[in-house]
Amino acid sequence: MPAVLTHQHHIFMSQQILILSQSHLEGATDAVCQWMNHLRIPHLRVNGEDFFHFQSLADLPDNASIATVWYRRKINSFPVKYSFKQPDFQTQYTIKRFLVDEFNGLHAYLFHTIDRPKWLNDPLSEDNLNKLHVLALARKYGIKTPFTEVVTTKAMIIQLLDTHPELIVKPLSECIFLEDASGGQYKMLTKTISPANLQAVPEQFFPSLVQEKINKKFEIRTVYLEGTCYSMAIFSQNNQRTKEDFRDYDTQRPNRTVPYQLPAELEQQLHQLMQSLGFRTGSIDLMVDMQGNYYFLEINPAGQFGMVSYPCNYFLEKKLAQALHKNIMHEEEIHQ
Amino acid sequence: MEYLNLYANCQLVKGANMSLLCDLQLRKFYHLPNDTAEVLTFLQQGSIDECIAHYGEDNREAITGYIDYVISKELGFIDNRLLTELIPLDLSWDRYSDITNVIIEYNNGIDYTGNFFRELFDLHIQGLEIRYYQPATLDNIRALLEVFNGTTLKYIKLVLPYDEAVTLPVWDRLVKQYPRVKSLLLHTAPVNKVEKVFDGSVSVACFSSSINSCLACGEIRTGYFTANMELFTESQHHNTCLNRKLSVDQHGYIRNCPSMRENFGHVGDTSLQEVLDNPAFHQYANIRKDEIAVCKDCEFRHVCTDCRAYIENPQDRYSKPLKCGYNPYTNTWDDWTEHPLKQTAIAAYGLEEIIK
What we know:
The structure holds 2 protein chains of 2 kinds.
Chain A: H1 2-14, E1 16-21, H2 27-38, E2 43-47, E3 66-71, H3 89-107, H4 110-113, H5 123-127, H6 131-140, E4 148-153, H7 154-163, E5 167-170, E6 177-179, E7 185-187, E8 191-193, E9 204-212, E10 216-225, E11 228-235, E12 256-260, H8 264-277, E13 281-289, E14 294-300, H9 306-312, H10 316-335
Parallel strand pairs in A: 1-2, 1-3
Antiparallel strand pairs in A: 4-9, 5-8, 5-9, 6-7, 10-11, 10-13, 11-12, 13-14
Chain B: E1 3-6, E2 10-14, E3 18-23, E4 28-33, H1 34-42, H2 48-55, H3 60-72, E5 76-79, E6 101-105, H4 115-121, E7 127-131, H5 138-146, E8 155-161, H6 168-177, E9 181-187, E10 193-197, E11 202-206, H7 229-237, E12 245-248, E13 254-255, H8 272-277, E14 326-327, E15 332-333, H9 343-348
Parallel strand pairs in B: 6-7, 6-12, 7-8, 8-9, 9-11
Antiparallel strand pairs in B: 1-5, 2-3, 3-4, 10-11, 12-13, 14-15
């Protein structure tokens, strides 16, 4: 069908979708690209690893040829390693931090060279997302959040335990995984504080985020895409091992994951929240308590949507490919 | 009031006499009498008390027994209402490639790097089965596996004659070198057994019978049933045996499956697009199990892989797989090879030799 080919050729010459991702361990990007190939949607995937082969700034993706940007990942790992002749743990870490900053300095230049409205999610908002701010914003739009405080003393914890039978402590930033010199691994997950384990809490400590513990019926993971919410309920309650955090996977008895429909009012509020942050996509964590109240927990703008898409048979990889394609078609209309 | 909420990915499939409760997430299935299925269906609209009132107090014990069973298998939970926000599972099916699975019957006279194969693997094929009927050297196998480096192919299954000189550590090294190889089937082996290599991630199955032609294919057995999202949803809309499947037989002819009569050209002089544009290539793609004689009354129909190559009546493409011994009206499994009504078809396909 020559007419179709000409049309595609025309789009390809003018504009395409830019996908910023990484070369390894990114099944979601792979699947979206495969859908784009199948649907013949013109796109360019640039992995962070590719930056190491650029000859000059001229090799960076060019604003004029890009209709829209999906910024999925920065990089998996640097293809080069630097170390001293006698490596020292501390300096090795400092070098690593420095190289990350150097790479970010280059990568984030794209946030400025490619027009901001072209980004599916505002990249500066995404890179500087603040948990406390997002919680405050959610409350502003009328979404219930668990009682949240940042504390530094045991005395304050004792005082809070007067009104909330149990508290949880979790990072203000992101969870990390640690490994000690002997290879011991430490997973950082959400933990409970109650009068029963209060003795383990020091008198004074690093400013820490605590929340009232919600007696949850189930959790909800919602993938938000261009105004639509695709939700999944996660039942982990009957399994003690995963009661606090469903990331503590139990392969023997996995959590039940099923499609879910949020109330229309909550979907509207989430839509407002996402819009105010400049996000057209992202994954949202919610919780439902025994009385059926919904609590907003957090947003992950580059969340794993495959873990919602597959169990619920939502085809989100295809829907994302099509949503990005609409942006090209929209651009075409403007130019004509 | 108490209600039983059944999880949306636990799907009931009703047969003539028995039903199958398919847990598509945990990939298990439960064979139930239709009476039980009827009660579970009632409970999707009414409370437990209403259910007991409907079926009578005499059935209270049976009904609570069914509910306890569902709870113990974690297929549902009890709540003070039916949670309508737990919406039904969307059973639609779609894939990003025109061909999802390929079978190659290996022949060392065929060039597997040719145009046809390049175009084929550019389609983002997910699974490939390579069948060797004759012994092959490891170098030969490696050379073929090399062809698929750089493609988006996800998994390869190798079917090979057993060779006592090739030990498990050799297979271990091979699958580490070619991580797309996710399973091996070694036929004509001294014993039937399954071993694992690559830290338990790749199975090496030894099979005592010989697989020297595609005539051995198409058996329907409970061991081959799979309850998962992919097969269950595809089965609602398409033929699970031949939809988006392509094979290249040992002579290089392109077919839906090596056992099918029709071919759509030779790999040496046919383009992939010609095959995909040929309506005959897709003629079996939409024959659903719900439309096939006998299968449409079988509770296993959406966990079954079907077979369109060997059927009870070769003249009727909607007839039951020949190599299936299950009777959904009596719920018994019989030896299909001895069934008097199957003998004409067995002779028509020339299967007498392999069933001796």
